Amino acid sequence: MIEVVRTIEHRMGKYAEITLETCAYAGTGNVLMIQKMLHICAEHPVEETSTTTNSTNTGTNGTTNGITGGAGSGGGLGQGFGGLNLNASLAAAAGGNTSASTTTPATTVQDYTAYQYQAVAVIGIALTTVGEDIGTEMCLRTFDHLLHYGGLPVKRVVPLALGLLYVSNPEYSVVDQLSRLSHDGDAHVAQSAIFALGIVSAGSNNSRIAGLLRQLAEFYVKEANHLFVVRIAQGLNAMGKGLLTLNAFHSDRLLMNGASIAGVLTVLHACIDMQGTLLDKFHYLLYFLVPSMNPRFIATLNEDLELSPTSVRVGQAVETVGQAGRPRTITGFQTNTTPVLLGYKDRAELATPDMESLTSVIEGFVLVKNTPGDEEEKH
After folding, report:
1. What is the mean pLDDT of residues 20-31?
2. Which residue of 25, 68, 95, 96 has the fewest CB atoms within a 10 Å radius of its CB?
3. pLDDT the model gives residue 73
4. Which residues contact 189 (CB under 8 A, 6 or more apart)?
């Protein structure tokens, strides 16, 4: 498939090639793929400069023609002394008739649209490491370097990549960094950071991010495009009144839902050129987030699919791989009665011995049944 895409001669062919390659390695944590994407991000746009020559005629006396037209000393003087045009200065002082030509560099022209494939590479780094705690921490340092040393097409997409790494997971450090980037001088970087704040807080009703978005709405009150993105981020923060999530991982964050990650990825690709998509006539692309929306609560149902309120313990998940016996899978738990909300790193277990879950993972809608007479000890 990649070989077929490589036959496309249009500049979007490389964009499509990197998109296809990064999607194939989504959630794998492949280090070689990350290194390959970093090499692509290290390419800097080539500056195209053109020079313009301005000719001026001064004076009417021809006595200085020998000075200005001299192939020896006159030419040498004109090129020396830090680029000062001494020939033209001497001719003007003598009042001679000479043609003085000055060469000035024109405005630098850079076609950043030709380097949009770098934006896909940045998103590809986040897509490869998403769902892996160690890889996510390493990516944060990598993105910090890209912000400092990367080209403009790379910097504009780093906030979106941070949003993909922390979908519906408002970590303090990431929110702080996105808050700083939301006041960046480049409009594209600021808009991407504001939208990423919405992705990071999607469905969480996070009060800190809600406060930041209110401040941004006041700050960009005269910027229509920025204000529109702020409103979208506010809507994502309050998505489903705090009962939904865009997180693509389920079963204790072990398995990835391909359709869910594809929905978020489609919107992020649209945000690479936000001026021509969401801020233009294609705002309906936000509907691609719908396949990613999942309930983030626990509701227990009996065998007749009727709501059955059950006591559950909800706490921070603990890694129990390799531990002997039956260690506790949660810590710092609180006992609640379903339905109950689950945070990004929370895990739940039944608190009553007379109820048994028909699934090994307690999240979403869970089927439970009564086990009367079963007096197992609570573990």
Report:
1. 90
2. 95
3. 40
4. 155, 156, 159, 181
